[in-house]
Amino acid sequence: MFRKLTDIIYVAPQIGVADVSEAAALGVTLIINNRPEDESADQTPGADVEAAANAAGLAYVAIPVTHAGFAEWQVTAMADALEKAEGKVLAYCRSGTRSTLLWALARASRGDHPAVLSEQAADAGYDLSPVTAMMDMVRGRAS
C-alpha cells in the first residue's frame, strides 16, 4: 500500500486508522494528509488518522490539496514539513498522486533537480509530467 519515493518518503492512497501502526513499524515519524475533508463518503476523517498518529507517537499535519491544483502556501507547507521531520514521512491522498506531485514541487522549491524527482516518482509508479513546468519554475526561484 505504501510506495517508497526515497529512503525517507512514502506516499499512499487513503489510509485508515489501522494503517498508522504499519507506518510506525516502517519508522514513519510524520504523517501528512493531503486530502481535503469530505472529498468522498468512504474516506477516513483526518481527525481519526490524527488521533491514531498521536496515540502511536507520530506527528501529523494536514495540507489539503483539491483537484484545482497547487498553491504556493501548500508547496511551502509541504517543504517545511519535510525538512522538519525527524524520520520517515508518509503522505497520503486519494490515490497518492497529489501527495507525490506536492512532494516533487516542495523538493524542487528547495533546489532538487526535476529530472531526479521524476525518476524517483516513476520508480514508485507516479508521473510528474503534470507539474514539470511548475517544478522548473519553483526550482528557478530556489537558485
From TrEMBL:
InterPro entries: BLH_phosphatase-like, Prot-tyrosine_phosphatase-like. It comes from the Bacteria. Residues 2-108 form the Beta-lactamase hydrolase-like protein phosphatase-like domain. It holds the Pfam family BLH_phosphatase. SUPFAM superfamilies: (Phosphotyrosine protein) phosphatases II (SSF52799). This is TIGR01244 family phosphatase. GO terms for molecular function: hydrolase activity. Gene3D superfamilies: Protein tyrosine phosphatase superfamily.
